[in-house]
């Protein structure tokens, strides 16, 4: 017996825990993907061999299950009664379509009220040790080889920017400098990894740092606590991203499509939080 949508949709709690979406949210995504998928099927050259026996819904389920659990493609193929090579091909075909619909776009226009404050943070994920260029990916903070991605979030929790992924050895502030700067009229709320940002962007709030010779006084501690209460929103968003284990477990795939996957999942999180109208 294989996993099929018509059966699993009747168990909404299990559905949400397996795929990270409710049945209604899933149906809205399918409705948005279907026209793009049909267009691709029409344009695609029909190769000889067996047809794909999975419906579009089941192929999207398969991709979501892979993102959510990050188990092996052999195991997912067993659940859906197909071979692992077909699992890989289906995921590679669906990802560009989902990216066009779900991913965070860098040309998004925001009102002045929305960009009044932007919270910035960088997250790292362990990767397999590279065969070449290991030093560039070694993170002194995590003591392992990592990928680093910067996320910018509004105080209400909306993700407005996902940076290009950089090797773990790159400093958080260096990742920021290689991306588009935040609007001049916005206040940047960052952690201590962004020391020096206030020289590039005047409206910057970063925590005070203590030293052996100069501990923090009461006012500085109160300021740091107040800043942390606002910045916790970006930590909550990062937690929501990492519910999808492909962004929290050790990343086993090639880096080529890492940023694509990150952007798709960021779009899914925005969609779940009510910031997308698909």
Task: Describe this protein's structure.
With 278 residues, this protein is α/β, with parallel strands linked by helices. The protein has 2 domains: 5-102; 117-272. Helix content is 46%, strand content 12%. The chain has 11 helices and 7 strands. It has helices spanning 5-8, 12-19, 23-43, 56-69, 73-80, 84-102, 134-137, 172-177, 197-200, 218-242, 258-272; strands at residues 117-126, 138-139, 144-153, 159-162, 166-167, 187-189, 204-205. Strands 1, 2, 3, 4, 5, 6 and 7 form a 7-stranded mixed β-sheet that branches. Strand 3 (144-153) and strand 4 form a beta hairpin. It starts with a helix and ends in a 6-residue tail after the last helix. 30% of the residues are buried. The model has no long low-confidence stretch (mean pLDDT 90).
């Amino acid at each position: 017996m294989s996993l099929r949508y018509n059966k699993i949709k009747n168990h909404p709690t299990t559905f949400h825990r397996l795929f990270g979406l409710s049945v209604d949210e899933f149906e809205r995504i399918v409705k948005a993907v279907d026209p793009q998928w049909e267009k691709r099927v029409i344009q695609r050259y029909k190769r000889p061999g067996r047809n794909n026996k999975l419906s579009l819904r089941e192929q999207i389920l398969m991709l979501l299950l892979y993102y959510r659990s990050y188990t092996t493609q052999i195991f997912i193929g067993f659940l859906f009664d197909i071979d692992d090579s077909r699992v890989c091909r289906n995921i590679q075909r669906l990802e560009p379509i989902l990216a066009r619909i779900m991913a965070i776009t860098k040309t998004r226009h925001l009102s002045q009220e929305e960009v009044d404050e932007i919270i910035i943070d960088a997250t790292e994920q362990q990767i397999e040790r590279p065969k070449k260029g290991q030093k560039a990916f070694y993170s002194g903070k995590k003591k392992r080889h990592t990928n680093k991605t910067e996320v910018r979030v509004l105080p209400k929790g909306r993700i407005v920017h996902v940076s290009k992924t950089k090797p773990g050895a790159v400093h958080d502030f260096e990742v920021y400098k290689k991306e588009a700067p935040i609007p001049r009229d916005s206040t940047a709320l960052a952690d201590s990894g962004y020391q020096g940002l206030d020289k590039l962007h005047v409206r910057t709030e970063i925590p005070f740092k203590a030293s052996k010779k100069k501990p923090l006084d009461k006012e500085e501690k109160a300021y740091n606590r107040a800043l942390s209460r606002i910045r916790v929103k970006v930590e909550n968003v990062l937690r929501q991203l990492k519910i999808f284990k492909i962004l929290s477990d050790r990343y086993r795939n090639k880096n080529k499509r890492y940023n694509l996957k990150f952007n798709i999942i960021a779009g899914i999180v925005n969609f779940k939080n009510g910031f997308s109208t698909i």
